[in-house]
Please model this.
Amino acid sequence: MQVEQYKIQEHNSSLQKEHQRKFDYVASGIANIKSIVEKLKAFQVAIPSWALGTGGTRFGRFSGAGEPGNLEEKIEDIGLLHKLNQSSGAISLHIPWDIPENASSIKALAAQHGLRFDAMNSNTFQDQKDQKLSYKFGSLQHVDKAVRKQAIEHNIEVIKHGVELGSDSLTVWLADGSSFPGQLNFRKAFNNTLESLQEIYAALPGDWKMFVEYKAFEPNFYSMTVGDWGQSLLYANKLGDKAYTLVDLGHHLPNANIEQIVSLLLNEGKLGGFHFNDSKYGDDDLTVGSINPYQLFLIFNELVEGMDAKGMNHATDLGWMIDASHNIKDPLEDLLQSVEAIQIAYAQALLVDTKALQAAQQNNDVAAAQEVLQQAYRTDVRPIVAEARLQSGGALQPLQLFRSLKVREHLIKERGVKTVATGL
Ligand SMILES: [Mn+2]
Model:
């Protein structure tokens, strides 16, 4: 399904007056409003190819309808999102769930939709059909060198696909670890993993980055071989300049201070990218900003402060990706909400009065410091985010337009009711 530009214009015209009133009100109090809108326009979030279908849990999966049945349809779905919000101009591919059969035509299709290829994701956390050796007891950490070799070769294969598509980064997330005490020698598992990562790192093109993603628990429940940011940073430091830590918001133990982790990784020049989602208990993979929007704001506050301190470009110097699973919502509606939540947190962080905050910190004025942060967080920045979309040719209210155009109904007509997308 294609959304014609005139439909977006009609939608925007009908909401223009009300939008202008709200935007003028909030903009009147912000001196650098123009530069904030420009930064929001430049900020793009990559959509993962595995999140366009309905996700499942350990207990069941309740399929939606009109899900994309192949990579072409997934690109079409992300193109739809990008058309509506002008903020999701990238796709993060998962191999082998989404192997491009013809790279140049896939690349051309993505370009038609204004999309580029963000980080490539390898998969050694499950066995594929016809796979020679099993990853049941790990992949890059495995006690058997032949299993490690198979997993290394898979990652190198993923890099090759990425090169063909114009991607420039590889995300390695490992399910490796152990579920019972005594199962694993921690040192050997660490050293095997390091050695394997070194071989993959050696196959990276010169301008590529490698993201080492960590996770505290699950699927292994006693130890994870890349279990936290410290372990990931150890690997990244040992690997070299092209290796970075990737922070997935759902991959921490409860109540971890993620914003502090982000700040220190940035300080070390080792923060590579983000997987956005939200959670209440564990790796819940819920809609970004749905449970803890204040934490998301605090994270963006550290990102903006830390990136500015290093003269980094907010839009391009880190990898911004969503990693979520949509069990009960329409995946496209859920993704529109997630991108919006990210833009809101980013806009709020851009509002923080840095000078006032630094002065409060210097004077140990704790109350004033809190006031500065809350002043930004409690500002309703939604009209600013909408203005950025409007100026980029997107819709003032993407979700509302998605519904009024009956996008899902059209997709069901095109694709049928019983379609199942590959993914989580
Ligand atoms: Mn992730």
Q: What stands out?
A: The radius of gyration is 22 Å. The pocket of manganese (II) ion is lined by residues 173, 213, 248, 275, 323 (CB under 6 Å). Residues 5-27 form the longest helix (23 residues). The mean pLDDT is 97.
